[in-house]
């Protein structure tokens, strides 16, 4: 996804400072970010608005993981974290199935012993 977008504003539904004190944090494979959040995080504002939470992405050094930080009221944070973890798992499984289909297609296209 390239560089992660920096947070420039706090949405009006996030109460300062109480909603910023104890965020929910989890990690997502960096390769899934574009599928989940769109190119350059273009879907993050929409997800923020629909979930009534605020997301922040933090790249972890020397890792293929990105930290997702969710701010908001207690229930909105938990619901948003669950939704995003479910999305990540769905996209991960989808990519795995695609790789399996690719491997099967490549195996099917291999030349038989008489063609080598």
TrEMBL record:
InterPro entries named in the record: KH_dom_type_1_sf, MOEP19_KH-like
Residue stretches making up the KH-like RNA-binding domain: 11-95
Gene Ontology molecular function terms on file: mRNA binding
Gene Ontology biological process terms, A to Z: regulation of gene expression
GO CC annotation terms, alphabetical: cytoplasm
Main localization category: cytoplasm
Subcellular location: Cytoplasm
Keywords recorded for this protein, A-Z: Cytoplasm, Developmental protein, RNA-binding
Domain of life: Eukaryota
Family from the record: Belongs to the KHDC1 family.
Known function: Involved in the maintenance of embryonic stem (ES) cell pluripotency. Dispensable for self-renewal of pluripotent ES cells and establishment of germ cells. Associates with specific target mRNAs.
Protein name: Embryonal stem cell-specific gene 1 protein
Species of the source: Colobus angolensis palliatus
């Amino acid at each position: 996804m390239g560089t992660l977008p920096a947070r420039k504003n706090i949405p009006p539904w996030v109460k300062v400072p109480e909603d910023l004190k104890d965020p929910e944090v989890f990690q997502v494979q960096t390769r899934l970010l574009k599928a989940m959040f769109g190119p350059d995080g273009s879907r993050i504002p929409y997800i923020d608005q629909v979930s009534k939470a605020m997301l922040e992405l933090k790249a972890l050094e020397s890792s293929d993981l990105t930290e997702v930080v969710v701010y908001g009221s207690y229930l909105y944070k938990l619901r948003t974290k669950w939704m995003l973890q479910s999305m990540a798992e769905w996209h991960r499984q989808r990519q795995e199935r695609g790789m399996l289909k690719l491997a099967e297609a490549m195996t099917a296209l291999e030349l038989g012993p008489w063609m080598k």
